[in-house]
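Schema walkthrough. Field components (list of strings):
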Amino acid sequence: GDSVTQTEGQVTVSESKSLIINCTYSATSIGYPNLFWYVRYPGEGLQLLLKVITAGQKGSSRGFEATYNKEATSFHLQKASVQESDSAVYYCALSRSNYNVLYFGSGTKLTVEP
Amino acid sequence: EAAVTQSPRNKVTVTGGNVTLSCRQTNSHNYMYWYRQDTGHGLRLIHYSYGAGNLQIGDVPDGYKATRTTQEDFFLLLELASPSQTSLYFCASSETTNTEVFFGKGTRLTVV
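Field assembly_structure (string):
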């Protein structure tokens, strides 16, 4: 079945530095899945950060960007300059149209140091 | 914004105990989901439903039952809790396919 891989369990970045969180996916079904980044702040539920449903396109939100690369089967999350308030757990996910079921990576905990 | 409320937020039970986790969404969404999240794993789908009285089996259903009593309410039942079910549980809802999925804040369940 479909799956998502995030290789970094934890990432620490200094404030104002750039960030990249890696995400690759494996889609065994026909067609291209929808791709998402969710974020979970301490004590909160997951929130949608951005999504891209068309291969080759880029999504952006709150200074974060991710490009749907179907050749590399990747959807890496990037930000040019992080802030302390970005400290959270970030999840890459994919879905098919069936019932909006999401398949998640294992999450990357981002800590931004002042 | 859609609201998904889970209760309780924290629960401790003994092995073999009976536990019910509750979830209510207030936007009349059609789809509701239960996920569990464990260290080193992403959220994994336990059960889901596309309407009152409907239940679909997810990827990790063993040891869990679920019931969708109304459009708003979706319950997860652990009838013989085991330590392997110690986890963080998330409920979620969405209106239909290709719409945003909204998550509750999670229920941390510990089985001792």
